[in-house]
Write a structure and sequence with these properties.
The protein is of the alpha/beta class. The radius of gyration is 24 Å and the shape is globular.
């Protein structure tokens, strides 16, 4: 499969073309339970009606002087107003900066100042927060509330009627095109401050075209599919894959406000979803519910996601009757370097995410940059095949040319992911490179240890990091959030049980040498472990009362 050539120059043009040809087909569905949480009316919005709303919104914003080269922040959750306002801004050449609703003062200050946005369209309850961030950073930002009007199901953000004039003329001449910035998405910042990934129209269009062309077990049916996603529109998967695949195939997007285990299958059935996108934690949570005769009462053909626990994948597929297609991509790589296990054999339960297609070139390298042999873990380096190695990738990290150059050192994008490749070319995820613990010359993947520790029924959450060791360089430290509070005596016994569990399933050196009991893990707004903060925390925990020294239990077997 070759990387497809976009038929349109902008996301808006693609939407307009599809809407004109399919005005009656459903574009967007907001389920009643989602609408109730948002305080709006449920709706199934046709392409024709959505196009009318998009053009009306674009006219309002354009009349206020916003245009090609401006940036606008959107804090609108997964509401209809996000989709419609994004498309309207794209028609004008205004880039959108999706704002995660979980961000608070310091995070908002950074985003507002770093992104250089001049307009923010946000939920009424967050207007003061964004305005305060702009004031604290000295940024001139027009902040308006998007008031979802129940009378028209949220299609006309009434706050735009009072839109102030743009503080400056559009900085770019001419009409927006394929290379115009469409979005600025921030990475989760697990090891430092979030980086702003500049994503042109080509990024989104190629992602959608890739999905349509992938075929195999994830074949898209034009005008028939309904895609249910619990991921936020601040995530590249929801924006670039879910939405663009449905737009380009005249399908229907069904966004949830978030993942609700108890209501998931009701939402799947009510939406008549044929495709679901999933997070790695979802299958385990859904398997926790009692088996039911209704487990296969749905129309889902496949799930698209990443990070499913290897223990649960086969069980889930057998019980619920559809494959979980594990994929790999990053915000930076887009469809320029995406891999998915959409053909058999998928090696279910082995963290396999498929084989590279011909349009992708890759290398697996050791710490010295030398290529590693098959079945040897190495950092994954990628680039697009052909004349343009960055085709489909992000353009750059905003205001950080050094980080951009470092990421592309040697003409390859350095992913930071440790991957193993077998003799047939199948790829298996091992861990993030920065999560690898180097103990006495042995490389230990944090996620491998975490997956075993999670098996203990008394563990609510766990994350593993390196902590300095005078003899071994690093030692394995596990931060554990127990299911129930523990006193000092119980902590020692629990720590020993966790080490015993690891010794049963892992090489002795991978077991934790320290087990620290904590109230919570440091998390990003997207609920990923803040690996940078975790590593800093791990260095301070040994010797504290809640951190148990288990190094004596790590004995080499005779």
């Amino acid at each position: 499969m070759r990387l497809p050539q976009p038929a349109d120059a902008t996301v808006y043009q693609a939407f307009r073309r599809i809407a004109a040809a399919n005005p009656q087909r459903p574009f967007l569905q907001i389920l009643p339970e989602v609408a109730a949480r948002y305080g709006i009316a449920p709706v199934e919005l046709s392409y024709g009606r959505a196009l009318d709303a998009v053009e009306a919104i674009a006219a309002r914003i354009g009349a206020a002087g916003y245009g090609h080269g401006h940036r606008a922040g959107l804090l609108l959750e997964n509401r209809p107003s996000f989709f419609l306002t994004w498309l309207a801004l794209n028609a004008l050449g205004v880039s959108v900066v999706p704002i995660n609703g979980e961000l608070r003062a310091a995070e908002l200050d950074y985003l507002v100042e770093h992104s250089g946005l001049c307009l923010a369209i946000v939920l009424p309850a967050r207007v003061a927060d964004i305005a305060a961030a702009a004031a604290r950073t000295g940024c001139e930002v027009c902040v308006v509330a998007s008031l979802d009007d129940e009378a028209d199901a949220g299609l006309a953000p009434r706050g735009l009627s009072a839109l102030a004039r743009a503080p400056a003329a559009p900085p770019l001449p001419g009409a927006p095109g394929i290379d115009t910035e469409c979005g600025l998405l921030y990475t989760s910042g697990t090891t430092g401050r979030p980086k702003g990934c500049v994503l042109p129209n080509a990024y989104y269009l190629i992602a959608g075209e890739w999905y349509l062309a992938a075929g195999g077990l994830c074949a898209i049916r034009h005008g028939e599919d309904r895609l249910l996603t619990p991921l936020p529109m601040t995530h590249m998967n929801a924006m670039a894959y879910s939405t663009m695949a449905m737009v380009l195939s005249a399908g229907c997007v069904v966004p949830l406000d978030r993942f609700h285990p108890s209501g998931w299958w009701d939402a799947v059935r009510e939406s008549r979803a044929t495709i679901v996108h999933y997070l790695g934690v979802m299958p385990a949570m859904l398997l926790g519910a009692p088996a039911s005769d209704a487990d296969r009462a749905h129309a889902v053909r496949f799930g698209f996601g990443a990070g499913v626990d290897r223990r649960h994948q086969a069980t889930f597929e057998a019980r619920f009757g559809f494959p979980l297609l594990e994929a790999w991509a990053m915000t930076e790589t887009g469809a320029g370097a995406v891999v998915i296990a959409n053909h058999e054999p998928r090696h279910v339960g082995q963290s396999c995410f498929g084989r590279a297609a011909p349009e992708l070139e890759l290398r697996l390298v050791d710490e010295a940059g030398a290529d590693v042999a098959d079945d040897t873990p190495g950092e994954l380096l990628v680039r697009a095949a052909g004349e343009d190695p960055r085709r489909g990738f992000f353009r750059e990290y905003l205001k950080d040319p050094q980080a951009t150059a470092e990421a592309w050192a040697g003409g390859w994008f350095h992913t930071g992911d440790v991957v193993r490749r077998d003799a047939e070319g199948h790829l298996y995820f091992v861990d993030r490179r920065k999560n690898v613990i180097r103990r006495s010359g042995e490389n230990i993947a944090a996620v491998e240890v975490e997956s075993v520790l999670r098996r203990h029924p008394g563990v609510r959450e766990v994350a593993v990091a390196a902590t300095p060791d005078a003899v071994r360089g690093d030692e394995v430290l596990a931060c554990v959030v127990p299911l129930e509070p523990l006193d000092a005596g119980a902590r020692a016994g629990f720590a020993q049980a966790l080490v015993a569990l690891c010794l049963e399933h892992l090489a002795y050196f991978k077991a934790p040498g320290w087990v620290a009991f904590v109230d919570a893990l440091p998390l990003t707004p997207t609920q990923k472990v803040q690996r940078g903060e975790l590593k800093a925390l791990a260095a301070t925990l040994p010797g504290t009362p809640a951190c148990i020294d288990t190094r004596a239990l790590k004995k080499r077997p005779h």
